[in-house]
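Input structure tokens:
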């Protein structure tokens, strides 16, 4: 995964999470991810799998590819 993809996914997850007024920890809990996962994702410290992208997209009721599109 290249840095641009990491940045785009990070920004999109952060924006969606804030729209739902969720903390990083609460979102991790709701998704059944380890406690610090969303924090690491938003800080671009990890590479996300397709499976986890699907889980996040389903939670926010969007298509998976929408997490990969820059909204700037």
């Amino acid at each position: 995964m290249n840095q641009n993809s990491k940045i785009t996914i990070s920004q999109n997850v952060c924006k969606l999470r804030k729209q739902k007024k969720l903390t990083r920890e609460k979102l991790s809990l709701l998704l059944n991810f380890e406690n610090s996962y969303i924090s690491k994702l938003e800080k671009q410290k990890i590479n996300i799998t397709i499976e986890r992208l699907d889980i996040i997209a389903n939670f926010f009721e969007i298509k998976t590819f929408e997490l990969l599109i820059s909204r700037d």
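The first helix runs from residue 3 to 19. The chain has four helices and no strands.
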